[in-house]
Structure formats: C-alpha cells, structure tokens
Amino acid sequence: MRVRVTQLRARRTLPVGVARNLIVFLRFVSAGAGKRRRRIWTIQCMEKEKRTEIGNIGEFGLIDTIRETVTLYQPGTLKGIGDDAAVLGPTDLVRVVTTDMLLEGVHFDLSYTPLTHLGFKAVAVNVSDVAAMNAVPTQLTVSLALSNRFSVEAVAAIYEGINLAAAHYKVDVVGGDTTASRSGLVISVTAIGEAKQEEICYRSGAKVNDIICVTGDLGGAFMGLQVLEREKQVFLADPNMQPRLDAYPYVTGRQLRPDARMDIVHELRELGLVPSSMIDVSDGLASELFHICQASDVGVAIYEDKLPIDKQTYDTAFEFNMDPITSVLNGGEDYELLFTIDQKDFPKLEKHPDIHFIGHVTAAAEGKLLITKSQTAVPLKAQGWKHF
Ligand SMILES: [Mg+2]
Q1: Centre of ligand 1 from the C-alpha of residue 98, in Å
Q2: How far is the CA of 72 from the centre of ligand 1 (A)?
Q3: Which residues bind Mg(2+) 2 (predicted)?
Q4: Domain that holds residue 317
Q5: Residue 311 Cα to ligand 1 middle (Å)
Q6: Are residues 249 and 129 part of one domain?
Q7: What's the pLDDT at 49?
Q8: How many CB atoms lie within 10 A of CB 73?
Q9: What one-character DSSP code corresponds to residue 321?
C-alpha cells in the first residue's frame, strides 16, 4: 500500500517533553514499592512533589483557585464562573451543545497520561464534536469528580491543560462542578458552540456521488495507545526496564494530546464551502462512515490506497504485527473530520495539503465497500470502540 508521510506541522508536533515526561513518571514510579505506592508516586511526580489536600482549602477555596486561572475570550460570555449560573448574551446564531465524559481506567490511564494533557484532551474531544457540526466553540463547563488521591496541585495541573486548550480554541470556561469521588478521576466537559443555521452540518446530508473527505491522517492514536500499553506492561514486569518511547513521538502524541480540527472549520468558512455531511473520527473511520450511511440512507465506496496514514503509524502497526489499515479503519481517537462534499465544490479543496479524498457516496443498496489496492471490493466492517 501507499504510505503518505504527513509533514509534521507545528500543530502536529508533540508538545515538549511528552515522551520525556513519561519516562520521568515511570522512573519515579520505579522508586516506589508495591502497587499503591507506585500510583501515589506517579501523581506526586506530576505535582512536582508539592501536595496540598483539597480539604485544607475546601470546595469554595478550590473554585476560587480555579477561577483565578481562567481567562475569558468570548464577548458573548456576560458572566462566567462565580454565580449560580453563567450568563450568555443573545445571538443571531444557532447553538450546538455537546458533552463528553472521561473516566479513569476506562478512557485514560494515569500511569502514562500527564494530568495537563488529560485536561487538554477533555476539552479537545468536546471541541471536536462542535467542529463536526461545522460550528465554532464558545463556552465550556467542566465537572471533576476527584478521589482523595488528588490534591490541589493535581487539580491545578488538570486546569493548566484545560486553560491551554481554552486559549488554543478561544473558548470560555464558564462553570462546572467539583465533587468527591470514591475512586478515580472523572472529567466531564460540556461545550457550547455557534454557527449560522445554514452552516450546520448533520450526519444526514450525504448525497449519492458526493466526495468523501477526511482530514489529517488516521490510526496514529490507536498505535500510540498500543505502544504506551506495551511499555507499561514491560515496566510492570521489570521496573528496571526503561520504557522505549523516543521512537514513537508522533503516535504517542496523537494518543495523549489530540487536537480538534477547528482549523479546517475556519478554512471551510473562508472558502464558503459547507459540507453536505460531517462527523468527527472518534471511534474509527469505518464506524463513522456507518453513522453517515445510516443517517443519510446512502452507501459508500472508499479506496484503500487513498486512506491517509502517517509513516510512523504504518511502521508501528507492522511492529505490532497488525495490518496498518486496521488501525486506520477501526483505531479511533483520531479526532479528524470526515465529511462529504458536492462534486462542484471539489476544485475549492483539490489542492488542500491536509484534506484527502478517500471515496464517494453511493446508493444505499450498493452497500459500504472498501476497494482494496488490488481493486477488489470488500464489505466494510465497523469494529470501532464499543462503549458498552
Ligand atoms: Mg462525534
């Protein structure tokens, strides 16, 4: 198959020290003895060894600490944190609202996920859903459930990531809730966005002969997860072994700190192009195509040799004895945009360096097909992330 090496643009490069952080965390862990101690050491490392119990400052003290770190960017936010509810100004635009919840042990593993990255990711995955509606995010609420393992410094580290993402997407943190948890960490973010009514993209608008487009490259986050899990197991088996992550900066970065494609939403607006349907790739390309087919009552034909994959994703899949196409079709957590456009709009995007044309929409009766590089049509299977 053809390998497309995506240029690592600034927004794609790994934030400084992710891989190094991980090694630091795990080295720190190795100083501990026993499972519980390891966990505590991990968090202490992220907190730079300072620890203030949340009970010492109380919930109101914690809210004050959080509020001091928050910056507002949107003129439409009339009142943010600090009253019984936030107040948003009137607008001529329609609003979109979306919520995503991340649970420790289900969606993330703190033995290799820095809290700051987790905060960023919790915002990014919600912004990605706003982007998938072709809307622009404006406000967020953030709710945290924290066990007593987490200190004021740990919350500050999570909010450092949330605030970095808020600045990156120009979205306001206007409220939320903080509560005690019996075990583990839960982060729930609700995002509000806005768009002109005619700009909103549903999953249901794909038409026969539309061109299927996808941004960026796929499968990287899944392969990054495989690397992180493997190195964790190697380390747990022998704490003297140091994790080998230097060779995987792109895929581990895709897993730990994804970026929602708001840049594409803004570019589409500048081009005056409204996709006929759109969805973000959170559960794997095949699964998202199935959602569009179901909502639009259409079929699809996509071409194996058109699927965008980064060289590091491709090489890592081979190392794990996996077909790279499996990670592309079923990996998930890429947070790229999958959309369809009318053929007349193709010239507007034809030369875009980061949008790939992977196939076309067909009649529902023709099914959902993957055309392999040997020109064989095989039925697509959606084996994406199963939530339940
Ligand atoms: Mg989505």
Answers
A1: 9
A2: 25
A3: 100, 129
A4: 203-379
A5: 26
A6: no
A7: 56
A8: 15
A9: T
Residues of the chain with confidence (pLDDT) below 70: 1-49, 384-388
DSSP 81: B
Residue 260: per-residue pLDDT: 98
**What pLDDT does residue 384 have?**
57
Taking the centre of ligand 1 as the mean of its atom positions, its distance from the CA of residue 125, in whole angstroms, is 8
Measured in Å, residue 11 CA sits from the centre of ligand 1 at: 21
pTM as predicted = 0.86
pLDDT of 182 reads: 87
On whether both 190 and 266 belong to a single domain, the answer is no
CA of 183 to the centre of ligand 1 (A): 28
For residue 298, give the CATH number of its domain: 3.90.650.10
Among 100, 92, 156, smallest CA distance to 130 is for: 100
What is the spatial distance between Cα 376 and Cα 370, in angstroms, rounded to a whole number? 8
Residue 314 labeled ligand binder:
no
Q: What is the pLDDT of residue 50?
A: 77
Scored b (16 or more CB within 10 A) or e, 9-18 reads eeebebeeeb
Report how far residue 167's alpha carbon sits from residue 314's, in angstroms, rounded to the nearest whole number: 33
Residues 211 and 241 in one domain: yes
- Distances, alpha carbon 218 to alpha carbons 21, 47, 285, 318, in Å: 25, 33, 8, 15
Residue 231 lies in a domain: yes
Name the pairing type of β-strands 77-79 and 377-379: unpaired
